[in-house]
Automatic annotation (TrEMBL), chain A:
Keywords: Membrane, Transmembrane, Transmembrane helix
Source species: Nocardiopsis coralli
Keyword Membrane: yes
Spans through the membrane: 34-54, 60-78, 109-129, 141-164
Full protein name: DUF2178 domain-containing protein
From TrEMBL, chain B:
Record organism: Nocardiopsis coralli
Entry-linked Gene3D superfamilies: lambda repressor-like DNA-binding domains (1.10.260.40)
UniProt protein name: Helix-turn-helix transcriptional regulator
Domain HTH cro/C1-type: 14-68
InterPro entries, alphabetized: Cro/C1-type_HTH, Lambda_DNA-bd_dom_sf
Cross-referenced PANTHER family: DNA-BIDING PHAGE PROTEIN (PTHR46558:SF4), TRACRIPTIONAL REGULATORY PROTEIN-RELATED-RELATED (PTHR46558)
Record has DNA-binding as a keyword: yes
Keyword DNA-binding: yes
Keywords: DNA-binding
Length: 180, 79
């Protein structure tokens, strides 16, 4: 886990800063961030189904577009923070054996979960349309919210899993601010 | 502290040895090439090391590996 170059050193410094570790060491805090992240993703889904682009060109829906952009930014910021909190932002070579094992488990769980989710979506969306009369079509307003939710869950599921399951981080006994 | 993985419990005396030798978590972690939190998780029994890491930990303290790790609980010293 030795840094190979200046970029590695910068990444490690950023992720391992005592202030950041103090902030994210608590499992309760990490879990509340996961809940907030999922809530934001779910809140963004209905906004994507409303034909906002058409509304804006017709002079309506500015508030909805503002809300959607706010959610995009909040989701991006929170996703980045969760990645740093769980060290998903670091390359594999900078992790030790415990961290690599945890990341591998997170990827395995996320892969299985996404497989289940995609199967449910496939069966729910494609099966009824394929085996129904020709007048039954898949509702197009559902496509964007569904893709948004699947994409955001896929992107952050490993970090969310780690944030949720990792216990409170042990304190650094050389950092006077962290001594119990 | 015991680590339970797939029903296999591994007890270790890392915290005791570290305190006895006056070594901080960070010093031990740097000598082993792991994160200091990994030493913390080992001491809390929340992580079971690979055989390679277990041997390096024993090597650091210059004791046989069975002095540091055991499948049976270590006897308590004192009351």
């Amino acid at each position: 886990m030795e840094p190979q170059n200046a970029s590695d050193q910068a990444r490690l410094r950023q992720t391992e800063s005592p202030r950041l570790r103090r902030m994210w060491g608590s499992r309760a805090r990490r879990r509340s961030s996961v809940i907030l992240y999922l809530a934001l993703v779910l809140a963004g889904a209905p906004l994507l189904s409303g034909g906002i682009v058409v509304d804006v060109t017709e002079g309506r829906g500015i508030a909805a577009l503002g809300a959607l952009l706010t959610i995009f930014v909040a989701v991006a910021v929170l996703s980045t923070r969760l990645s740093r909190a769980t060290r998903m932002s670091l390359p594999h070579r900078l992790l030790d054996e415990r961290q690599r094992a945890e990341r591998d488990t997170a990827h395995r769980v996320a892969h299985t979960t996404m497989g289940v989710l995609l199967t449910v979506v496939f069966v729910g969306a494609v099966y009824p349309v394929t085996f129904s009369p020709p007048e039954v079509v898949f509702p197009s307003w559902l496509v964007a919210p569904m893709l948004w939710t699947l994409m955001m869950v896929h992107v952050s599921l490993p970090a969310c899993y780690l944030a949720w399951t990792q216990p409170d981080e042990p304190f650094d006994d050389e950092d006077p601010d962290e001594l119990p | 502290m015991p680590t339970e993985s797939r029903g296999e419990t591994v007890h270790n005396r890392i915290a005791m040895l570290r305190a006895e030798r006056g070594v901080s978590r960070r010093q031990l972690a740097e000598a082993l090439g792991v994160h200091y939190q990994t030493v913390g998780y080992l001491e809390r029994g929340e992580y079971s090391p690979s055989l390679h890491l277990a041997l390096r930990i024993a090597g650091f303290f210059e004791v046989p590996v069975e002095v540091v790790f055991s499948t049976e609980p270590f006897p308590r010293i004192g009351r």
